[in-house]
Amino acid sequence: MTDTQSTSHHPATRTRHTVVVPASIDMVSLLGPGDSHLAQIERAFDAEVHVRGNRIALEGEPGEVELAERLLDELVTIIRTGQGISDETVERALHLLRAEALQPGERAADVLSLNILSNRGRSIRPKTLNQKRYVDSIDKHTITFGIGPAGTGKTYLAMAKAVQALQTKQVNRIILSRPAVEAGERLGFLPGTLSEKIDPYLRPLYDALHDMVDPESIPKLLAAGTIEVAPLAFLRGRSLNDSFIILDEAQNTTPEQMKMFLTRLGFGSKIVVTGDVTQIDLPNGTRSGLKVVEDILTGVEDVVFNRLTSHDVVRHELVGRIVAAYEEYDVRDGVESGPKAGQPR
Questions:
Q1: Burial of 280 from C-beta contacts in 10 A (0-12 / 13-18 / 19+)
Q2: Do residues 302 and 309 make contact, with C-beta atoms less than 8 angstroms apart?
Q3: What is the DSSP string of 253-304?
Q4: Do 145 and 216 form a contact (C-beta atoms < 8 A)?
């Protein structure tokens, strides 16, 4: 924690506080190379910021000064975890505090410093509050649904939790599945072996896997059945014990397929279902199993539904703006959260 000293008060709407940063904290880490983080803080608040040694003086409107103090405290806490601070970290911490979405007991530092998985010097961690809540839900529940637009990390974080569970021996295998809807009955007309035919529909899962597991070990894990990547239809009739099972692109399941998948759950297993109900590729007139399942399972113990939004997009910032623009368009067009153009409503 930082120590805060109220050194003087100015009349009306301005106040002055001094934050004393603990001596154990490297001020370059806190303020950024070339004071880049300090410049971010100065731009973000309607307050004057002056640094002398390990003392940071803040002067301005009381609410702004208080928020700046909280931000500094969160950044110090993150540094204490051993995690470096980037401009993005400062921006995300500020967003979490400004949005006032944190519940009692929740901290921006807890969101931004949670390390799910590390591989080849790269750490995978949630970057938004909803992502943190989603990851926590996976830990706490047997069946978790992650529903949201592209780029919100719903599949990527589920994959990271699956690899973590395998590495810590919570499960014996990982099963990754997708409905190969685009192929449909035309699968037989595609060239190549069955594996070559279905590979394009499973490729995104392989790509995520390569980020999290040493690439040279993946063929061995696949050959041993420790990791299985298969179309949804291949799971029919099986009981999956001691497994971490992910169903991706679940908006492209029918209600019958969704029921079939969920009832594959065996002892010692965990299921995560991800999808985006605005990107349904099912034929016209076919209901999405993902849209139906929430009405059926809401209130069932040990099943939880998590919603991610355009605010949780962690790809290029333009992706978030594109998703938000489409959401606004859908609202104006009277189809808020409905299927994309041409899909059944």
A1: buried
A2: no
A3: S-HHHHHHHHTTB-TT-EEEEEE-TT---SPTTPPPHHHHHHHHHTT-TTEE
A4: no
What pLDDT is attached to residue 316?
66
pLDDT along the chain (345 residues), means of 10: 50 82 93 93 90 93 91 93 87 84 81 82 85 96 95 93 95 92 47 56 79 89 91 91 96 95 96 94 90 94 94 75 83 60 41
Output phi, psi for 200, to 5 deg. Answer: -60, -30
Q: Where are the alpha helices (DSSP H) in the chain?
A: 27-31, 36-44, 62-80, 87-99, 108-113, 129-140, 154-167, 194-212, 218-223, 255-262, 289-297, 317-332
Both tokens of 284, joined, read 């016209």
pLDDT of residue 281: 87
Measured between alpha carbons, how far is 180 from 194 in angstroms, rounded to an integer? Answer: 12
Q: What does the alpha-carbon distance between residue 237 and residue 315 come to, in Å, rounded to a whole number?
A: 37
What pLDDT is attached to residue 329? 87
In order, the DSSP letters of 118-150 are EETTEEE---SHHHHHHHHHHHH-SEEEEE--T
Let me know: does 244 contact 270? Beta carbons within 8 Å.
yes
Q: Which amino acid is at 33?
A: P
Distances (CA, A) of 167 to 136, 137, 291: 18, 19, 33
pLDDT value at residue 100: 65
Residue 204 is given by DSSP the state H
Phi, psi of 17 (to 5 degrees): -125, 155
Residue 181 has a pLDDT of: 63
Confidence (pTM): 0.77
Q: Read off the amino acid at residue 260.
A: M
Q: First vs last Cα of the chain: how many Å apart?
A: 51
126 vs 124: CA distance, rounded Å: 7
Q: How many CB atoms lie within 10 A of CB 123?
A: 13
Residue 161 is given by DSSP the state H
